[in-house]
Amino acid sequence: MAIMVQIARCARVLFGLAKFRALPETLVLTIAMLGVSSPLLAQSAGPIAPKAGQEIQEPPDIRVRVNLVNTPAVVRNANDELVLDIKESEFRIFDNGVEQRIEGFDMGGAPLSVAIVVQTSSRIEALLPALRRTGILFTQTVLGESGDAAVIGYNDEINVLSAFTSDHDAIEKTLTNLRQGTSGARLYDAMSRGVQLLRGRPDSRRRVLITIAEAVDTGSEEKLGEVLREAQLANITIYSIGLSSTAAALRGNPQPNPPISATPPGTFGRPPMPGTPQTPSTEEQRSGNLDLKALAVWVIQHAGEAVHDRPLEVAAEATGGLYQSTFRDQSISDAIDQISGELHAQYTLSYRPTNTEQNAYHEIKVEVVGRPGMKVRSRPGYYLGQTRG
Predict the structure, then answer these.
(1) Is 47 inside a domain boundary?
(2) Could you give the number of structural domains in the chain?
(3) Does 223 map to a domain?
(4) Domain membership of residue 33 as a residue range
(5) Is residue 260 domain-resident?
(6) CA distances from 181 to 8, 119, 150, 156, 246 (A)
(7) Strand order across the beta sheet in which 98-99 lies
(8) What is the pTM of this model?
(9) Average pLDDT over the chain, rounded to whole?
(10) pLDDT, tens digit, for every residue of 247-300?
(11) Does the pLDDT value for residue 312 go beyond 70?
(12) Co-location of 234 and 326 in the same domain
């Protein structure tokens, strides 16, 4: 009983109203208990005024991370054909070696939001006519009826040429009217802008970034690793269509004064790889022995480091997308067709990782069980740490 009396006295002090002093102990106690149990009554009493000279403590800024991870997966058989009939029960997904429970499963059905990042540099002047004809390919083969897209052009500047819209005519018009810019190529900054726009799209949509660009960056403030970290955490898949300034030069007007080679014609400035004939083609592909998956993981883990080797391929590998080169026989339209086919045959697996310590890289592995010869391509992982914004 003594405890109840003390609660009643404290209630008089806390409420600080003269009329409470005139009330019986039992009634004051009842009001105090109601104030504790009812959020509405507790709010009506208002905050307790601090004493003179007392420092007011602001509540901590608590940031809650959404841990749902979406992992796109493409399945091909031994003949490299897309497989479209895999059931949810046939997939296994592992996060840092621990099998996860699949919470969401979809095959090519969720609507697409696509950020189209296209190079408009004078470096690829001869390829711009082909780029201007891609609008109808994107709207008819990639987006489908429910898709929307934004268009970002870049050279020395980053320009959002069209915000996200489902108006296919507007998307086609934007690409048809691409204008040549300066000679710069701020690729990573343009990709970062695309990621920012995609982060604003609803979670119910598949977020895809498609770059049509050279594998060259000049002058960007962003690092590729930082862009890819953000893309992974926002569940964005990157597809890349590689352009070639060499091909552009071959298709363009002949140069009156071509650059002087450092070595005589038909010779090369470094020794050949053992057992390999040395030709212009083999020299261009000399970096082809890179382990792209390992490089993609390294880029994510060392986000502040500069990347010089095959950035478009690394971006696709790091996010579960596909890289398509247009240097030889394949045209830009063929590459878009390939990407469209994958997007409409893409499985999306969702799960909540059981181990979410900060500042740690999480390796993802997706398998298909019970069907020998199935090859699964998905993103290799994601980096869970502090993010911007």
Answers:
(1) no
(2) 3
(3) yes
(4) 2-42
(5) no
(6) 76, 9, 19, 8, 18
(7) 98-99, 91-95, 360-368, 381-384
(8) 0.71
(9) 77
(10) 555 554 444 444 444 444 444 445 554 444 443 333 344 445 667 888 888 888
(11) yes
(12) yes
Residues 149 and 191 in one domain: yes
The whole-angstrom separation of Cα 102 and Cα 79 is 28
* Residue appearing with tokens 């509405």: 40
pLDDT at 289: 60
Quick check: 238 pLDDT over 60?
yes
Task: Give me the DSSP letters along 223-245.
Answer: -HHHHHHHHHHTTEEEEEEE--H
Amino acid at 73: A
Residue 92 and residue 204 in one domain: no
- Non-local CB neighbours of 292 within 8 Å, separated by 6+ positions: 310, 313, 314, 317
Structure tokens at 30: 């009842």
pLDDT average, residue stretch 142-163: 95
190 shares its domain with 336? yes
Contact between residue 86 and residue 73 where contact means Cβ atoms under 8 Å apart: no
Give CA–CA dist 110/37, Å, rounded: 45
Structure tokens at 85: 């009939």
Give me the pLDDT at residue 244, please: 78
Most confidently modeled range among 107-111, 125-129, 172-176: 172-176
23 shares a domain with 125: no
Which residue reads 């352009």 in tokens? 243
375 and 294 in a common domain: no
3-class secondary structure, 51? coil
For residue 141, the 8-state DSSP code is I
Strands (E), the chain: 69-76, 91-95, 98-99, 104-107, 112-119, 148-154, 158-165, 206-213, 236-242, 323-325, 347-351, 360-368, 375-378, 381-384
If we measure between CA atoms, which residue out of 319, 306, 322, 316 comes closest to residue 383? 319
Task: Please indicate, yes or no, if residue 74 is contained in any of the structural domains.
Answer: yes
> Do 173 and 100 share a structural domain?
no
Q: For residue 275, is it left (φ>0), alpha (ψ between -120 and 50) or beta?
A: left
**Domain match, 329 and 352 both:** no
**How far is 251 from 243, CA to CA, in rounded Å?**
12
